[in-house]
Amino acid sequence: MAKPFTCIFSFFATLIFLPLLPIYAQSSGKIAVGQSLSAATNASPWLSPSGDFAFGFHQLPTNSNLFLLAIWYAKIPDTIVWYANDGNPVREGSKVTLTADKGLVLSDPQASSLLWSTSDDFSNGNGVSYGFMSDTGNLVLKNSSSNDPVWQSFNHPTDTLLPTQIMEINGVVNSRLSENNFRKGRFQLRLIPNGNLVLNTRDRASGYNYGAYYISGTNERPNTGHRLIYNESGYMYVLRTDGSTYDLLPQNKTNPTKSYYQRATLNFDGVLMWYSIPKTSISNGWSMDQALPDNVCTSIGASGPQLGSGICGFNSICVLGDDKRPTCKCPPGYSLLDSNDTYGSCKPDFKADGCVEYAQRSMKNEYRLERLPSTNWPFSDYEKLGPYNEDDCKMSCLTDCFCAAVAFQDSNSPICWKKKAPLSYGRQDTKVRETTWIKVGNVNFSNDPLNTFVPLFPPKAKNKVKSLDKFLLGGSVFVNLVLLSAISLGIFLIYHKKPLKEFEEGQRKKLREYNSNVHCFSYQELTDATKGFTEELGRGAFGVVYRGMISTVGPPICVAVKKLDRISHDADKEFRTEVNGIGQTHHRNLVRLVGFCKEGDQRLLVYEYMSNGTLANYLFGELRPSWVARIQITLGIARGLLYLHEECSTQIIHCDIKPQNILLDDNHNARIADFGLAKLLVLNQTHTNTAIRGTKGYVAPEWFRNKPVTVKVDVYSFGVLLLEIICCRRSVCMEFIEEEGAILTDWAFDCYQSNTLDSLVNNDMEALNDWQRLKRFFMVSLWCIQEDPSLRPTMKMVMQMLEGLAEVPKPPCPTMLSITTTNTKPLG
Ligand SMILES: *[C@@H]1O[C@H](CO)[C@@H](O)[C@H](O)[C@H]1NC(C)=O
Ligand SMILES: *[C@@H]1O[C@H](CO)[C@@H](O)[C@H](O)[C@H]1NC(C)=O
Ligand SMILES: *[C@@H]1O[C@H](CO)[C@@H](O)[C@H](O)[C@H]1NC(C)=O
Ligand SMILES: *[C@@H]1O[C@H](CO)[C@@H](O)[C@H](O)[C@H]1NC(C)=O
Ligand SMILES: *[C@@H]1O[C@H](CO)[C@@H](O)[C@H](O)[C@H]1NC(C)=O
């Protein structure tokens, strides 16, 4: 009766069952060819010389008829560190034999079949002479005429790494499926070819890797990471090509390996945990030294939306325990899809079959909302409503058959996110600012006799013992968790007094780098892509832009490669950060950054190619674009700016809005280019107005007045641009320099006051026929070019006024406050 519990009750077992552990005989660790072991209860394993490690058949704690071919700590109960046969257990009587030509061979005598072997063929003049179970936990197969092992378990890690173990590029550690199921689980630790050590989730069926939830950040070329080393002192680090190291353990704490057993295990719940135990008092059980990531529930998805369900299953909520390990819980009205898989998905207990007769059902108060504080499923949104109050937010979900939950964030302008099923990446954490309301049916569909899928009651209790067993098992896991929590709470109070805030911030940054689609190109790749920088597309404030074709990161795409030539020294340090910031912006009215190159002195940015050139060419070319097209372009630019100012994660002030920086894609949609680069632009020493980042004619007056630069500088430039779009002419026209109308911004207000708008638009009948809109656009532009920044509207207000959703008041004279008008005259 005690056996099934020893493994589950690792902590308890050490206290209670310790005397029952077999005391193995001394061993040389050497295994001769021809020696074999059979799977049986109480069969003795092959031991390392010190007796610390054992190799053999380990009886499964959950089923005493099944055995796992494994390596384990012989003196510590139930600490399996390596397993063969992909974690599949074998029947009693199965046999492992050391052979010269195939190494270790696992076979099932009853079926007389070979189940697993270390190799299909060692016989190419390099067979096995003997095996050796070492004191480091490494099982080594050797040919006596060579020093290098023919095979070693350290090169084929399962879910655990041990001191002295090294993992090369492409090395993988896979979590188990659950505490007692050793098949490959949903989490991986990998050293990927770019030099980063990552933790990621994977799809179990296909093996597809989802986004990472930890990144070491050791991919800076040329000193990329190339090995993960767990050295014999118990330090774990990524070794870079220049010999420098990136430490994973310790963050202060390493116990000497002489007096402590140590291991790093990727737990089945996705947390990489370093454990230690004093050799002299193993009865206290393993203590947890450090967890990676620090908060697995919030680290996952820190870089943005991803596929998969997250740490827990779909519709489930990840809650971090005091032991830094997650538990998963179903929201109210939901229960586990597989009652045995507590980390799995949750199914609704109510009828959630979409929109069939939804109106009637919701009328009958069939649904209600349950409040979940500090909880969110951040990647299940399908609508964002705001500003919106909490009641409206809830009501909009209750009356919407697509809505599974709403998250509400209270602030000055409260926002409401509607979420669709299945909900993914759920987490409950004090850091989560949203309150989520989940929609729950009032009728327990699981109890509905018409529902044939979920039985009303469990099938007739076949035998009471079994269900009692189940109960006990469940209970013990619970007790175990509570105990572990208690122990680890203690540990973490000692070692993690401060939340590792900086560490987390750095992590989030790195994650963004890895998961954003911004690719790091080599200079050679870009030289090839642009055929040696031959086809010039244009020259701008930052350098020359070339056309190129990239095929290294997916299907071939046409790109514009911008060679930056004026990066200031200080800005260069920020280059990566800025580039990653830019890479995070995704909007249909922004030109997408595909990648970058930072090599030696070279700084290049790779953008998607815009086939229809700049707005300047379109607007000031021979043919006047249609009024309708100009309206669309105006709204597109406004949307793009609104996104940069208010909707992306960090506010971006463009500082150089002008028609040369607006590009047109295949469908003549406006796309803003060069955003986020203002910070990188070095002061231009050759011009007189050194501090101005921007282009004459579009630059807001505050640049000249040492006033703080805010988003309103973009609003000003947008106003000038809007005038140009309305009139199809440049804001500063040198040909008319002595005439009335040389400076569009001045002339515009004159026209407005004298009511001669038609002369301004040069008798554009199309526009004049759309008089209300024309006037509205015109007035908005006059608001935008107000000299006093505080008078200018925000882009949000601009958007509302352009769309006719808000009234446009009568604009004052833009230069009312100015002392002189130098700032609106052509500069230089
Ligand atoms: C060990 O390797 C040598 C050649 O490298 C080979 O001749 C010998 O047969 C191998 N020993 C065994 C036991 O296979
Ligand atoms: C293990 O790594 C640590 C940190 O890099 C170093 O201080 C220590 O000397 C190393 N131990 C051995 C045995 O190499
Ligand atoms: C680690 O050690 C440094 C000083 O060596 C100390 O300032 C820091 O608080 C320690 N961190 C933790 C988590 O104990
Ligand atoms: C619905 O009924 C099932 C089966 O009786 C039960 O397991 C579940 O907890 C119930 N759900 C709710 C929300 O009452
Ligand atoms: C849960 O596990 C038990 C024993 O492992 C098994 O008999 C039962 O069928 C499982 N239940 C489900 C729903 O898979």
UniProtKB/TrEMBL annotation:
Membrane-topology annotation of the record: Single-pass membrane protein
Protein name as it appears in the record: Receptor-like serine/threonine-protein kinase
Compartment annotation: Membrane
Binding sites annotated in the UniProt record for ATP: 563
Ranges that cross the membrane: 471-495
InterPro entries: Bulb-type_lectin_dom, Bulb-type_lectin_dom_sf, G-type_lectin_kinases/EP1-like, Kinase-like_dom_sf, Prot_kinase_dom, Protein_kinase_ATP_BS, Ser/Thr_kinase_AS, SRK-like_kinase
PROSITE patterns assigned to the protein according to its UniProt record, in alphabetical order: BULB_LECTIN (PS50927), PROTEIN_KINASE_ATP (PS00107), PROTEIN_KINASE_DOM (PS50011), PROTEIN_KINASE_ST (PS00108)
Family in the record: Belongs to the protein kinase superfamily. Ser/Thr protein kinase family.
EC number(s) given by UniProt: 2.7.11.1
Domain annotation Bulb-type lectin: ranges: 38-154
GO cellular component terms, semicolon-separated: membrane
Protein source organism: Spinacia oleracea (Spinach)
Single GO molecular function: carbohydrate binding
Highest taxon above the source species: Eukaryota
Primary localization class, coarse: membrane
Residues spanning the signal sequence: 1-25
UniProtKB keywords: ATP-binding, Disulfide bond, EGF-like domain, Glycoprotein, Kinase, Membrane, Nucleotide-binding, Receptor, Serine/threonine-protein kinase, Signal, Transferase, Transmembrane, Transmembrane helix
Gene field: LOC110802269
Enzyme class: transferase
Domain (Protein kinase): residue spans on this chain: 531-805
Catalytic activity: L-seryl-[protein] + ATP = O-phospho-L-seryl-[protein] + ADP + H(+); L-threonyl-[protein] + ATP = O-phospho-L-threonyl-[protein] + ADP + H(+)
